[in-house]
Amino acid sequence: MARATASTAITTVTTMTDQRSLLRLMSWMSPAFPTGAFTYSQGLEGAVHDGLISEGDGLRHWLEDSLAFGQPWNDAVLFAESWRRARAGEDCLDVAELAEAMAGSAGRHIETMGQGSAFLKAAREWPSPVFDALPSSCPLPVAAGAASGAHGIDLSAALAAFLHAMVSNAVQASLRLLPLGQQQGVAIMAALEEPVTETVERAMDSTLDDLGSAAFLAEIMSMRHETQYSRLFRS
């Protein structure tokens, strides 16, 4: 009887720990988390303004390419590196400096630094020494990756949630920029599950040597957005 009771207790504790990690991750990556995601479009507003994206299929292909070759890929690599360092009790200051330096335009810089700083401020509701070890102005992938690692959240799950939130924010922004209905937005999210999964799997085995972007048009659109006459978003 004692052995059965001990086994039951261990199972209960493990389940609670997994559930808390999941709930924490869902909170951090939720649209309700105060990172100001609704303020940014990841350069999509510039692409729509210049006619490069005009309908759902174009948006889906744009996001697929971004995940594979653009800033989202670099963010996934930086996230994974920050997770590993925080998990090992190492600092992420040089990763934060690198991530900030890799922002290819003023819009990208405002977006990643603004969201990262807001993330750190809100995530302090879940105390951890990692928050004091990070700069107060910190790129989003470093902030979110280090927080996930320090709190023992599985890297694969954390990366998937991070990239899903990024894609979801882009789709939500596009619903305001394009003649897309909610159903079409949901269809795009469903179609992007495989590209997100592939990026997660690649990033899991990545190092900082794998950083690099070939999505030149996305970066150019982000730069052009800075001088666009009429704008809904900051990036």
From TrEMBL:
Record-linked Pfam families: UreF (PF01730)
Identification of the protein by name: Urease accessory protein UreF
Gene: ureF
Function: Required for maturation of urease via the functional incorporation of the urease nickel metallocenter.
Main localization category: cytoplasm
Location(s) in or outside the cell: Cytoplasm
Family: Belongs to the UreF family.
HAMAP family according to UniProt: UreF
Molecular function GO terms recorded: nickel cation binding
GO cellular component, one term: cytoplasm
Keywords assigned: Chaperone, Cytoplasm, Nickel insertion
Keyword Cytoplasm: yes
Subunit structure: UreD, UreF and UreG form a complex that acts as a GTP-hydrolysis-dependent molecular chaperone, activating the urease apoprotein by helping to assemble the nickel containing metallocenter of UreC. The UreE protein probably delivers the nickel.
